[in-house]
Design goal:
Elements: H1 18-29, H2 37-41, E1 52-59, E2 70-78, E3 83-90, H3 91-95, E4 106-109, H4 118-130
Antiparallel strand pairs: 1-3, 1-4, 2-3
């Protein structure tokens, strides 16, 4: 197998190349096993609940909405019969509570991801509070 070789014909497409076939035959003859390191040492990814979501919430009364659970509220509007807000909340808050499923409350997740670092946003908010702005 080690002497001069010349292969002619189609290859590197839907058919195996002659070089690959020859390599596989050689591996079989010498009982060589191909090693797939990544296959055996790969740790699978795990899903996380540690993320924030932007939500649109429509509701009848403010007393049913835990405003303190929101990282920030971007906008809100109130009419006599119905109110709504758009804000950012931690996903675990929605997963572990039921306030958004009760008392004629509707919740829609916004498709945009939360890009801004929440910790930086909290520091900005705290500095504004200390300055007496909010």
């Amino acid at each position: 197998f080690a002497d001069k070789q010349f292969f002619y014909g189609k290859g590197a497409g839907s058919f195996p190349t002659a070089s690959a076939v020859l390599s596989d035959l050689s591996a079989l003859r010498y009982q060589y096993k191909y090693e797939y390191k990544k296959l055996y040492h790969h740790t699978p990814h795990e899903l996380s609940n540690d993320f924030y979501v932007r939500v649109y919430i429509s509701f009848d009364d403010w007393k049913y909405i835990p405003r303190e659970k929101f990282e920030w509220i971007e906008e809100w509007h109130a009419q006599e019969e119905r109110k709504y807000l758009v804000g950012v909340v931690h996903f675990c808050e929605l997963k572990e509570s039921t306030w958004w499923r009760e008392n004629n409350t509707s919740l829609i997740l916004a498709p945009e991801p939360i890009i801004e670092d929440i910790e930086i946003r909290k520091l900005k908010k705290k500095s504004l509070e200390l300055a007496g702005v909010i």
